[in-house]
Amino acid sequence: MKVKKGWLVATFLVGALVLAGCGNSKANSGSSSKLASSYNYVYTLDPDNLDYTVSSRASNSDIYSNFEDGLLERNPEGQLKGALAKSWSVSKDGKTYTYHLRKGVKWVDSEGNDYADVKAQDFVTGLKHAVAAKSETLYVVQDSIKGLDDYVSGKTKDFSKVGIKATGKYTVQYTLNQPETYWNSKLTYGVMFPVNAKFLAQKGKDFGKAQADGILYNGPFVLSNFTSKSVIEFKKNSSYWDTKDVHLKTVKLTYNDGSNPDGLYKSFKSGDYTAARVYPSSAGYKDVVKQSKNNIIWSDQDASVYNFTFNLNRRAYSATSKKTSKAKANTKKAIWNRDFRLAVQFAFNKTNYAAQINGKSGANKALRNEMTPPSFVTIDGKDYGSQVETDLSKNDSDAFGSVNLADAQDGTYKPAKAKEYLAKALKTLKSEGVTGTIHLDLPVDEKSTTNLNEAKSFKNSVEKTLGKKNVTIDLQMLNEDKFNAATYAATTGAASDFDISNASGWSPDYDDPSSYLEIYNPESGSMLQTIGLDASSTTKIASDTAAVKAVGLDQYAKLLSKAEAITTDTNARYKAFAKAEAWLLNSGIQIPVYSLGGSPSVTKVVPYTKPYAQSGLGAQRYKYVKVQKKAVTISQNKKAKAAWTSKREKIAKAADNN
To answer: Binning pLDDT at 50, 70 and 90, where does residue 305 land?
Structure first.
């Protein structure tokens, strides 16, 4: 499968909605007289595309996910419930899914005027448009829906041969290539959303343009205002089919460049913001403790992962300290050396790194040591992560014999091991003609205080452990646009301008480990640009092929293929993916660091009232969210979490009994 959710903003400014958690109980319901009707906070990057069937970037999906519904959605307890679909059925062979739509659901324009009813044919139009527009998110379903890959590749030009049919005015049916136990979890992703054909034809190339009239709306909110690097505003969709679960009348997000983290709390106290991420490492945190000690809420870790990635085939050198071609060649040889990559990983103190935003007391709370969260799925009743640990230890007992991959602790910082592996790497590199200091360029957003402090921490940790005369981290100070162009916004491996980067992050598209692991598949991976490569299935680049063979990514592709071939036995499938993940971690190509969540904020968002979604687009939706007029207290949050956890356990038990 071709998996990509896209880049996650590499600051925690968005964390104040994450901390709202999820759920719906007496402990968190609140009376209407105590609730506010608006949510106000910040955003850090302008949306540039509202075509929900095409764009994979979180800076876009965090916005447009509030404007559209798909067939299913996540509720506050994390259950998949009918959205545009009121019911559905699955064939005995697990390959055909039939969805019956709600009748009378309206498409509305940016002014809130009714445009048309949502019908089954709109889903056919949406998928066909996604192909025509070269969607970044087709990987989610391209290998799943029968005939879709042939249509995308041009083997057939007849879309009627693709396994999606409007079998009635309000019935849509999908035929899959093979059973997928997690298929329904893909339906919360934009590529599976409907598009009205008449409106699409009217807008032409302007469909999805980042402005209010660029799309039609069938979801809980309508975009009322967007001014670049200024403000994004939503208003409640009065024609929405489920208005009872939309408790906010307006949402206002104000642009923030990250240069003044302490300003968030000040704006919260003045009443301008509904919530505020707070920073224990900042000078202003003492005021937070003094004024809001009982309101500092630490959020739960989510399913995202932020990591460092090595550029395996760097070709862009606009942001570099290297003066000669030999210096560039030396760095590439070092990056191709596994012992060198592991030396850097073992030298990296992730706890100190995370302390730059969470302070020493909270430094471990968000740490992650795997791509796939340890408890994302289970194998024979045990967390997936325990199998990864076993397989990783088998791969190399010297490097990872006693590794602990659990969340909320640093499982790979081993200074003595770092020096051992550096010595092995330098010996090999010397035989290849590499001498002198290895320089690694690390881009930094010069205006982002947190990004700069994290980069300095990484530099200090690596250079102190490995010796600056051996390895030097060269911080490349860039303005926001150049930083994004070199990292976040780079669409090809050739455009990725770094040796090592901390700008990449990931959140799963659906409930299967492949949603994490396929992103680095050398044949089709949708995040290959973050390691300096492009998919070999679409682009044949000799230097990419050499890099893939040098680090062994072709072996990784074979492991993924074996796992993907297992379609009905979930335990066997997850074991196979655990083996692939162990290979990835053993390679040191990327270094998992932390997740979203595990961070402190103050908020008026009623605890556990937002959708709970490990995958798809639910987590940043404002449907279900309630805002109270006073700041949430620690005790209120604790009580709400206990009630939510209990309800989740009852739901899981009921599901097991069915």
So the answer is: very high
Average pLDDT, the chain: 93
pLDDT at residue 64 above 90?
yes
Backbone angles phi, psi at 215, to 5 degrees: -145, 165
CA 175 to chain CA centroid, nearest Å: 28
Which has more pLDDT, 491 or 95? 95
Burial (CB count <10 Å: 0-12, 13-18, 19+), residue 155: exposed
Residue 465, Cα to own-chain centre: how many angstroms? Answer: 31
**How far, in whole angstroms, is CA 108 from its chain's centroid?**
29
Extract the runs of DSSP E, i.e. beta strands, from 556-634.
590-594, 600-603, 627-628
| β-bridge mates for residue 89, sequence order | 98
* Best CA proximity match to 439, nearest among 362, 340, 550: 340
Give the pair of three-digit tokens for residue 296.
């500092």
Q: What is the 3-state secondary structure (H, E, C) of 434-485?
A: CCCCEEEEEEEECCCHHHHHHHHHHHHHHHHHHCCCCEEEEEEEECHHHHHH
The per-residue pLDDT for range 12-61, each reduced to its tens digit, is 444 445 444 433 334 454 555 689 999 999 999 999 999 999 998 889 99
Residue showing tokens 């004024």: 291
Query: Can you give the pLDDT at residue 537?
Result: 74
Q: Token pair 């020493």 is at which residue?
A: 360
Distance CA 195, CA 218 (A): 10
C-alpha–C-alpha distance, residues 366 and 598, integer Å: 4
pLDDT at 25: 38
DSSP character at residue 119: -
pLDDT of residue 111: 96
The pLDDT of residue 166 is above 90 = yes
Q: What is the 3-class SS of 393-420, one letter each residue?
A: HHHCHHHHCCCCCCCCCCCCCCHHHHHH
Side chain identity, residue 444? V
